[in-house]
Amino acid sequence: MVCFFSLIFQAMLVCLVLPSFSTDEVKHFNSSSVRELLISSYQESLQIVDEALLHSRQRRSTPSSSTHMFRFLRQTEPETLEIARAAEVFQTTLKVLKRSARQRYKRDVTAPELLSWDDVELIAELSQCPPPTHPSICHFNSKYRSISGICNNRQNPLWGAANTPLVRWLPAEYEDGESEPKGWNQGRLHNGFQLPLPYEVSKKIMKSTSKSRDDIYSQLLVEWGQYADHDITFTPQSTSRAASVTFTDCLNTCENVHPCFPIKTHDMLSTAQGCMPFHRSASVCFVNCVSDIGQALQRQQMNAISSFIDASVVYGHTPKMESFLRDLSGHNGKLAVNKQFKDPKGRPYLPFIGSLPSECLQDPQGERVECFSAGDTRVNEGVPLTSLHILWLREHNRIAEALKRINFHWSPETIYQETRKIIGALHQIITMRDYVPKIIGAESFEHYIGPYGGYDPATNPSASNVFATAAFRFGHATISPILRRLNESFQEHEHLRHLRLHDTFFSPWRIVKEGGIEPILRGTIGTAATAVSPNMLMAEETTERLVILNIEQHMDLASINLQRGRDHALPGYNDWRAFCGLKRIKTLDELSEVVGNYRVAEKIQKLYKHPDNIDVWLGGLVEDLLPGSRTGPLFACLIGKQMKALRDGDRFWWEAEGMFTQQQRTELLKGSLSRVICDNSDIKEVPYDSFRFGKYPSDYVSCNNIPLMNLEAWREERSEDLKQCGSPAKIKNGDFILSSTSGKLVALYSCYHGFKLKGAAAILCEGNQWRDQPPQCTGNHH
After folding, report:
1. Looking at the structure, do residues 294 and 309 belong to the same domain, yes or no?
2. What is residue 448's DSSP assignment?
């Protein structure tokens, strides 16, 4: 039984299953001595973590240090850092406690042997892990989803919410059972053999000098995969706030010292040249009612953003982030735009990030172009990704403007929330209708996902660890080493050369100074996608020249993915095949049949020596593609199961009852990425489905022939009550939305981030007037 939330702290104990101790052990580990040991271990761990934090800050403030450059790739919000720090204190306390217990009891003691649930909860409370979240906080009946995803499920408020654990579909496999990744202890045997080094696997199996083309789909399909992934998962890395007793700088060590898990490049002595830097993923507190105390003590990784397909890439996942991205002073429900630059036709760009100067790369000749800011901090990773973010910023503002014209009585908050709801629905439709069936194939889509049957509150929509860390990284094998920039006729651009992949990283200046988003978008539409085959898996640009800003050495994406799977203690390829009801691989011939290439299967067997040792990301990637798909059977299963959970477990899914009227649903179905491109760029011709590759001009149509949503379906007649009472009073630093409760018109007020509501949040329209005074938004609590 799992009871994730409890009303009172002590009430949690009702459904806890204590570990079984022998009488001798109970005498041996009497509770008062354990409690005393626990408190002293916590105090020591707090000192370790805080000193590590201080050392990290000092390193980052040193000009020669590039630690902050490495972190930039995966920037995290303060709320996430606080939760990660709490989890780090929790994990460090366990390590110190085990060491102290070993010294006291003169033998190795496992944490589950030593601790009761009372003890675990005390460590969690001392470490400042977030307390249990009770369903009672979800009493409000909002028409709109929360920005963090909390309370989507009213009984399990944290399902799918930001800063919660990635769920485990199969138990973690740590080398020590608790936190040490696979490959952490040199010489440790798995099924009688050592695991091969990820770098060795990358060099012998993944690397290819040339890539063939997919003649069915365009490169835009690949770019949407990355964009959609950034809407669902973000696993922050354990860096500045991590605990390391030795205060090790992960950029300058080849030793496994938490949080450093460097990727060994060859059997050299431990020198910085013999490895690539790697930070472990940040951990997250996971103290809930599980049947096994060991699971609560295991290291779990975090999803820092909401799991839902909710356009958090556009709007952010915290109130502070959301507030920064909005144009609150304009009172128009729009998103903020760049104040310094516009495109050649006057269309807006994303705003710059708040702290300047930023770390993005610059045009050697021209004026500075800072990093852009969007709902996801990875927005600057590559210019095609940035271009998609810019498109959706413009689409929000276009729709907000139209809704304001149609419903002039709507408040800015209503315009913003209704637009956000439409944008979220379009993200769901494009991903589930246009993207996923192409990736897993129509047959797997029918088998694993099937037709929509309505919201199911028993379905947990949280992103799974294997999806985030392995299955949805299938797209890394489809990354193109070249970005082609094309002119209006979808031919080579006269003035803009094609770019190698490494020249597109963290370079928003290329959009601002080199012709806007159009040449880039035309390049992704007008270029066939990169094809995947077992003997041509990863482009050299990603295995030899991956840029992580000012890290002096280039990184290898394949090695990083393999190391990340081990860091997260994912079970092996065969276990996941069994999970999906597929046959376990036992022999070279069976592996060869699944891969469809004997030579590649032979290389894998030679490296891994035992089929159960094969890393799940590699195994899933080399499988022969299913007909009409871009994945093999394993990834089709894992992606399909995840997408079904994201759809069925989302109370705000666009097709769910009461979300949209039938007329609005009909209009939403006309939406497409081609239409969004037509409405928000200077591109006049597109394929009907931009994910499909076609020849220009025969397979292209004029934007006039691409279906257009009619926003008149959102026209709302002013109710009689509103005509009688008039519009509610506006308030400073906040706004209202209108709602109907028991047939009465209600104005629900809320304050912008940083302000506190004083007075009644809801006022009623009664007897031709608003019954109460509107509340105030007081004080600045930044």
Report:
1. no
2. I
Directed axis angle between helix 219-232 and helix 383-406, to 10°? Answer: 70
Q: Phi and psi (nearest 5°) for 546?
A: -70, 125
- Tokens representing 144 are 């709109």
Q: State the angle between helix axes of 31-61 and 117-126 in degrees (0 to 180), rounded to the nearest 10.
A: 30
Q: Could you read off the pLDDT of 306-339 as tens digits, one per residue?
A: 999 999 999 999 999 999 999 999 999 999 999 9
- Among residues of the chain, what percentage have pLDDT more than 90? 67
In this structure, the answer to whether residues 626 and 671 fall within a common structural domain is yes
- Residue 573 and residue 491 in contact, taking contact as beta carbons nearer than 8 Å: no
Q: Which of 247, 282, 303 is at the close of a domain?
A: 303
Say what the alpha-carbon torsion angle 685, 690, 696, 699 is, to the nearest 10 degrees.
-100
CATH, residue 725: 2.10.70.10
- Cite the DSSP H helix spans in 411-530: 412-429, 436-440, 442-444, 465-469, 509-513, 518-525
Q: Any residues with CB less than 8 A from the CB of 52 and at least 6 apart, and which?
A: 241, 242, 243, 244, 247
State which residues of the chain have pLDDT below 70. Answer: 1-30, 53-75, 140-141, 208-211, 239-247, 267-273, 287, 289-291, 535-536, 539-554, 780-782
Q: How far apart are CA 132 and CA 245, in angstroms?
A: 30
Tokens of 406: 């149609």
Whether the pTM exceeds 0.85: the reply is yes
- Mark out the alpha helices in 515-661 (DSSP H runs): 518-525, 540-543, 557-567, 573-579, 588-595, 598-608, 616-622, 633-648
Q: Which residues are the active-site residues?
A: 230
Indicate the length of the chain as a whole number. Answer: 782
Cα(184)–Cα(197) distance, rounded to whole angstroms?
Answer: 11
DSSP 500: E
Residues 6 or more apart whose Cβ sits within 8 Å of residue 589:
none
What tokens does 74 get? Answer: 């995966």
Amino acid at 748: L
- Phi, psi of 447, rounded to the nearest 5 degrees: -70, -50
User: 500: which strand partners?
Assistant: 482
CA angle 388/433/707 to nearest 5° reads: 70
The answer to whether residues 76 and 218 belong to one domain is no
- The residue type of 599 is R
The alpha carbon of residue 352 and the mean position of all alpha carbons in its chain are separated, in whole angstroms, by: 21
> Rounded to whole angstroms, how far apart are CA atoms 240 and 701?
51
- Predicted confidence at residue 242, as pLDDT, reads 43
353: domain CATH number? Answer: 1.10.640.10
Decide which of 678, 701, 716 is a domain's last residue.
716
Query: For residue 168, which of 638, 653, 613, 651 has the smallest C-alpha distance?
Result: 638
Closest CA to 134 of 158, 105, 152, 108: 158
The secondary structure element, H or E, covering residue 483 is strand 482-483
